[in-house]
Amino acid sequence: MIQTDEHHSCNGTLKSHSDQKQQENNNLKNGYHRNEKVQKNGKGDGFHQPRVRGEDSFEEAPLYVAVLTYMGYGIVILFGYFRDFLRAVGLEKCHQAREREEQKDFVPLYQDFENFYKRNLYMRVRDNWNRPICSLPGPVFDVMERVSDDYNWTFRLTGRTVENVINMGSYNYLGFAENNVDFLKTVAEETRQYGVGVCSTRQELGNLSIHEKLEQLVAEFLGVESAMAFGMGFATNSMNIPALVGKGCLILSDELNHTSLILGARLSGATIRVFKHNNMQSLEKMLKEAICSGQPRTHRVWKKILIMVEGIYSMEGSLVRLPEILALKKKYKAYLYLDEAHSIGAVGPTGRGVIEHFGVDPKEVDVLMGTFTKSFGAAGGYIAGKKELVDYLRSHSHSAVYATAMSPPVVEQIIRAIKCIMGYDGTTEGQRRVRQLAENTRYFRSRLKEMGFIIYGNQDSPVVPLLLYLPGKVGAFSRAMLKRKIGVVVVGFPATPITEARARFCVSAAHTREMLDKVLQSLDELGDDIRVKFSRHRRSYRPELYDETDFELDS
Amino acid sequence: MDMKNMREYMGWLYYQYLLITGIYVLEPWEQSIFNTVLFTMVAMVIYTSYVFVPIHVQLALEFFSELIRGQPESTEQTSQMK
């Protein structure tokens, strides 16, 4: 280590109080950033290096699958027209909303494709969604049984419950959706102190000390200067983007962004341009064009260029290409808005999101946004970044000014979850959960790929979409899984492209190996029964790992 | 035993047919309508091919063989006349 006396002699004129700074600058001049690197990543284990991001897979199905999908939709649409005709003629009772007799000559309200789709396709398989649950959404839950007498137009509950259904659909990544009395002691205490309702907005009389504690903790967790928490994750996006950008600004948003981001962008009044999903060439082309041509008609310079991306895309399970986007952002002097709704707590060696996963400095991202709904088992969202940004949002954001403040028990749940992950509560429970989630994710994904299913997304993302494609198989899959006591979420047309219906699994740290094995075995059987193993890269089958260490080998 | 296996297999094949064509989501009477229409069309195709295809094939073969035989005959006649 260089001593300060030598410093004085080397550098000539030096003020004593700037010694420390010069020493750091000297480190920089040597070109050897080792000390700085240790400081940045100090929170993790010693030898953390920026990870190489695995490749996202978006395997395409064989051609006959696409043909059969279109054929299936065509047949069901034909029958949809037939049924609509019967309803119009009067041979069949219409259960859905219709215009009144007096309004028949007005502009039709229920004619577009979305309504046609809802009436004739969605209604037929509607029993796979909105299933009532009567326990907490942990790794296993209880589903209430319901039947329909008129083909899903109305339901009635039979009164029985299906118990211990394995939950593969809840965003319970770290397992904090639990009702263990020991863990929830602090939540009960805070409820006793603050009550449940706040009855005011943050700006008026709703700024409780517990909110300040939460925001400080969130800022420390993420490694930024300051943060602000809001009561609803969707509202965090849709109400804060209008405060950040306005007319005369440009928003470059990814093709597959969430509705809340799109709504916020549209509300702001800025110009929106969409680049292809995770495609850096498309983004760079748009940036170049934006800077060269400026605003559409006047060719004036754009006031701000904001790139909006998500950490993990929830329908594909793909990770953002963060280092490339940061390089582009610096080159073209744009701002970056990173929505870490699904990735905070779920990726990264210590659970701090995609920023830690890629080994990037959190100060390089301008606006960090995330939600507490997924990994922290609570409700709400946050925006974090520089102190000036957050102070500006406190007074200019619609959500901060008009929305009621977060409820104290929810805030305390988030505080205890963050403390658990960071290790402040004195246990290693949080880190154990983060590691368990990573292990579960990799095991689940690799086993599914081996079985021959088409899985989208990155190998590290806990969101696992399994492609089903054909409309008939979507309903059959969900019903068959429930019969085997596994609850899955299947997604179809409005949320995904019409030919790519899928089942979306969310792996959780609370799932044990036995649960995952049961799910995988059921998927294996069901995949063969329904025939959804479309992948052409099927790897060699390997036998299950047993716990016993000595077993007879066939020689 | 074999009859039971056969029937199970046929049941599974019918299930696959329902899933692939998308009929699975429809109500039973709609499935019957679709099955009837499909069966009728397949029956008509079989009938047409059984009754008409052999005749057409035979006629086509005769037509082409006459073309080929017709050419050598005309050259024979011209060489004889010389």
Short précis:
The complex is a heterodimer of chains A (555) and B (82). Chain A has helices spanning 4-11, 19-29, 34-40, 63-89, 113-122, 185-194, 209-222, 233-244, 259-268, 280-293, 322-332, 354-357, 387-396, 398-402, 408-422, 429-451, 471-483, 513-530, and strands at residues 140-147, 156-167, 226-230, 250-254, 271-275, 305-310, 335-339, 367-371, 381-385, 463-467, 486-487, 489-491, 502-506.
Can you describe this structure?
The complex is a heterodimer of chains A (555) and B (82). Chain A is of the alpha/beta class and 555 residues long. Chain A has helices at 4-11, 19-29, 34-40, 63-89, 113-122, 185-194, 209-222, 233-244, 259-268, 280-293, 322-332, 354-357, 387-396, 398-402, 408-422, 429-451, 471-483, 513-530, and strands spanning 140-147, 156-167, 226-230, 250-254, 271-275, 305-310, 335-339, 367-371, 381-385, 463-467, 486-487, 489-491, 502-506. The model of chain A is unreliable at 1-49 (pLDDT under 50). Chain B has 82 residues and is mainly alpha-helical. Chain B has one domain. Chain B contains two helices and no strands. Chain B starts with a helix and ends with a helix. The chains are: A alpha/beta (555), B mainly alpha (82). Chain B: Pfam families: SPT_ssu-like. Chain B: It comes from Cirrhinus molitorella.
Radius of gyration of chain A (Å): 27 Å
Strand order of the largest sheet of chain A: 3-9-8-7-6-4-5
Number of strands of chain B: 0
Biggest interface pair, counts: A-B, 21 and 14 residues
The overall pLDDT average of chain A reads 85
**Which strand-content bin applies to the residues of chain A?**
5-15%
Percent helix range of chain A? 40-55%
Helix content of chain B: over 70%
Shape of chain A: globular
Query: Ranges of chain A with pLDDT <50 over ≥5 residues?
Result: 1-49
Number of domains of chain B: 1
Oligomeric state of this protein: heterodimer
